[in-house]
Write a structure and sequence with these properties.
By secondary structure, this protein is mainly α. It has 3 helices and 2 strands.
Length: 91
Amino acid sequence: MLWVLCVKKGFRNSKQEGIVRDEDDQTVAVVVPPEQYASYQNYLSQREEDFAILDEIAEKMKNYDPEEIQARIDQAVEEVKAKSRPQRQTV
C-alpha cells in the first residue's frame, strides 16, 4: 500500500508521467507499462548478443598486428570503390 501512495504522490508532483521524484527533485523510480518494459528487456538481450559477437571477433583478432588489419581494410575498400566506379568509355 505504501508503494501505491508513493507512486501516486510522485505522479502528482512530477512534471513527467511515470517518474517518481523525492523531495530534492531527484528521480528515484520510473514506472513504465509492461509492454515498454518487455521492449527494454529485449533491447538489453539483443545488446548482450551483439557485444558477445564483438568480443568473439576481438578474441580471434588479438594476435594480429593492427597496422596489418588496417592495411587489409584499406585495400578491400579500394577494391570495392574500383569495382563500383563507372567504366570510362573512350569514343
